[in-house]
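Note to self: keep these together.
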Amino acid sequence: MSLPVKNMPKTIRLIRAFFGVAVILVCSLAAVAQSQYDKQRIDSIEINFGGTQANLPLADQYRLLVKDALGPVYSAPRIRDAIDALYSTRRVDTITVAATLNSSGGVDLRFDVKRKTQAEKVTVVVGTTIGDKVLEQDLLFKLNLLTPGTAITDQTLRSNADEILDYLRERGFYQSEVTYERRPLQNENEVGVTFRVMPNAQAKVETFDIKIDGYSKTIKPGDLKLKVGGNYSRERLVADLAKIREILREDDFFAAARRASYRL
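Structure:
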């Protein structure tokens, strides 16, 4: 329960007053610190990634972004614009900005940039496959996997692994497994990513029954892609359903074409 101000002990009132003055003082000092740089000429912009190895091309790219956002003179709103420009690359984790006045009265700026880890090389290694061929190229080009230069997190890698699994299961590889690993490269914050894919055995078609009420003709197995004892994939199943409906339409079984069912 809070006490009315008039009944509040004197010590508590003094402590609150002290902290109120302290907050105002800190804000005032920050404003003064900013005002000494306002409208001063910007003489230099340094991009510092930390660590032991510099990425000069990327530092130059970021320096141009910052320079365009800042303009020729210092202002706090332009500093925020420069920070936003760096974050918009989606490769930056955190940014700290330091400003100092040099001997000629200009401002020297240093942007300490912590970059996100990014994948510079992405490879897929396919292991044991029993059934249809699974090619590395199919996984790299048919799926929306990482591309070199993409910022990554553990969630990004897990999502890519799940996408590979979904693709393989659509092809009938229900026992497939996917793991991934990261390995450091020459530059800090850059890694190579390898997805190790084990499709294992593809599902087989044990039975394939077609039931169409009122349709007495036999649909020849040779007209269909799925074969009893053959490899299963959803692509073949969808193609077979389309073929069955086509046959029914040709025989004027339009209603039956809509009711056609199957059992695997």
